[in-house]
Amino acid sequence: MAARVVIKSSVWLAAAAVVVMLVVASAPNGGEAAGITTCGQVVKPLMPCVPYLQGDGASPPPPACCQGITSVNSLAHTTPDRQTACNCLKNTAMKLNGLKPALALSLPSKCGVNIPYKISMNTDCTKVN
After folding, report:
1. Using an 8 Å Cβ cutoff, are 106 and 60 in contact?
2. What average pLDDT does the segment 79-94 reach?
3. Which domains does the chain have, with CATH numbers?
């Protein structure tokens, strides 16, 4: 049973990682928020996205998922914030299995977040502005 719980948590972290990389890479520079200081700040708000990212994508993402994306986007005001989040989530996701990348890639647009370019697990976080 413990292994199953770890796997579910791992899938969640992987899904959240891809989604946050998309959001973080698209956030505008500037702002007054405190910024990103921990991985938990970017992963926790995306927990509601997990069922969607594990599913078949037939239903729209839940509102709480889109609210999480908006929340994370508001934290990543500076290039260092976005790069920190990208690295944290990319490293977490690369250790995990079960992620449906196509759903993660489409999630920002389904939540109304404009992403000007495609991001994958091969993203070079040093080039995120």
Report:
1. no
2. 77
3. 39-111 (1.10.110.10)
